[in-house]
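Exercise 3.2. Students should predict the tertiary structure of the chain below and write it as structure tokens, then compare their answer with the key that follows.

Predict this chain's 3D structure.
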Amino acid sequence: SIVDNGENGLVVAGDAYVEGCEILRNGGVGIVVVFAGAQDQVRLNRNNIYDNRSYNVRIHYTCYTPLVDATYNYWGTLDPGEIEAGIYDREDDGLLVTVVNYVPFLENVTGVAGYSERLPLFRAYPNPFNARIAIEYDIARNTGVTPEICTPSPV
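Answer key:
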């Protein structure tokens, strides 16, 4: 997982395959594709790539591969316009050679190891005078959640 990095998240070059990663909330670009030749294959599949500061994926001027396969990723939205706004490729700059193909894309966070499988819980302060306790949590998007409380068996 590359999450909350102050700079770019990941820089890939040549033949590259990125799968099963969390690339979120980085200070620059999520993934920068550089130095890929015309015969190189760049595949970014089954990742969660969103909320990066400038772009989620950016093609560099030294990239000469005609297509980056970025299919089956979750982009933080289902709106193709918003997904495209987070991708900088030939569609944005006619001097670039490369187009990023992001269709089809995933409608939900992909089950990769890391951030999406953890639920951040806020600190619970037990009250010895009250049998009830409130455990607050935060989730990234509006979805159904069924919390389960597990207590250890007495020894």
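Discussion points: The first strand starts at residue 2 and ends at 3. The first helix runs from residue 80 to 85.
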